[in-house]
Write a structure and sequence with these properties.
single chain; alpha/beta; Rossmann fold; 6-stranded parallel β-sheet; 11 strands; 15% strand; binds nicotinamide-adenine-dinucleotide
Length: 292
């Protein structure tokens, strides 16, 4: 007898719907004389970063958000980079600032991120935004975990009282992911590379979010029947195709729903970046109008 196949959570479709809403809100702002603007700083020549940045800029254009791409040389000094960020902090037509990571080793990424005005930190990486998330205050949330939350919400996955397991504890994915799930009422376990007996943790999960950066590390026998599995990982395989941290083939025979790679979390991350940019723009324009 063939086993049932899990429902495929379509990140492309949901991302399109979010981008359509962003475009509508961007048009409203533009009609009021304030086109939203996102500045992207790209330092050096990391090929993958150039691709990510190109996709972000293109997505902005499609949504009616003005994008300002600044390419900066690999050997820029930290002081000069901080000066560029400060100029953008002061620019009234720039509502979001994104510094593409990784930065060259002579630059301290934390210092650069902390130099971005928290209200313009559309990646949600500034300590003020991380602290706001930690303490349940309003703020800009990191795009990948908020994309995952949007997927779970759209799929009407119950989170209150659910056992959620997050694999990965990075500042940009795992930790904020766990905080968002906890804020939604889940009981959350965060696993990392030192976790003993990972399968014992993953098999308890009603909702399993995998962001470890290890190709196809989660197999069907590590998943509780009926669980919802979200795959954050992205890897290019030797044949040129993409895969995630989850072995889709075996896990889709056990889970009730699963996000694919490609076509899952990836498109949602960009959609949430656009949404953060619109929300940051609306806040800043409201504030500006109040003080005009
Ligand atoms: P990272 O390397 O900063 O963190 C990985 C985390 O996973 C660490 O906390 C580590 O301890 C943990 N880990 C590693 N191996 C493990 C194991 N065997 N068992 C349990 N935990 C383990 O990575 P990151 O930046 O958080 O990204 C994770 C993955 O998500 C990568 O594949 C990355 O490419 C992908 N990613 C995708 C998007 C997207 O838009 N879809 C965005 C960001 C990151």
């Amino acid at each position: 007898m063939t086993q049932p196949i899990a429902r495929r959570i379509d990140g492309i479709r949901l991302a399109q719907a979010i981008r359509a809403e962003v475009a509508q809100r961007a048009a409203t702002l533009t009609a009021s004389g304030h086109q939203p603007g996102l500045a992207v700083l790209l330092v050096g020549n990391v090929a993958a970063s150039a691709v990510y940045v190109r996709n972000k800029v293109k997505a902005c254009e499609e949504a009616g958000i003005r994008s300002i791409l600044e390419r900066l040389p690999e050997d820029i000094t930290q002081a000069d980079l901080l000066q560029r960020v400060e100029a953008l902090n002061q620019a009234p037509d720039v509502h979001g600032i994104l510094v593409q990571l990784p930065l060259p080793p002579h630059i301290d990424a934390h210092t650069v991120i902390e130099s971005i005005a928290a209200a313009k930190d559309v990646d949600g990486f500034h300590v003020a935004n991380a602290g706001a998330l930690m303490t349940g205050r309003p703020g800009l949330r990191p795009c990948t975990p908020s994309g995952v939350m949007a997927m779970l919400e759209h799929e009407t996955i119950p989170l209150r009282g659910a056992e959620a397991v997050v694999i990965g504890a990075s500042n940009i994915v795992g930790k904020p992911m766990a905080l968002l799930l906890q804020a939604a009422g889940a009981t959350v376990t965060i696993c990392n590379s030192k976790t003993r007996d990972l399968s014992a943790q993953t098999r308890r999960a009603d909702v399993l979010v995998v962001a470890a950066g290890k190709p196809k590390m989660i197999h069907g026998d590590m998943v509780k029947p009926g669980a919802v599995v979200i795959d954050v990982g992205i890897h290019r395989q030797t044949d040129g195709t993409l895969c995630g941290d989850v072995d889709y083939e075996s896990v889709s025979r056990v889970a009730s729903a699963i996000s694919p790679v490609p076509g899952g979390v990836g498109p949602m991350t960009i959609a949430m970046l656009l949404m953060n940019t619109i929300e940051a723009s609306e806040q800043q324009i409201k504030h500006e109008n109040r003080h005009a």
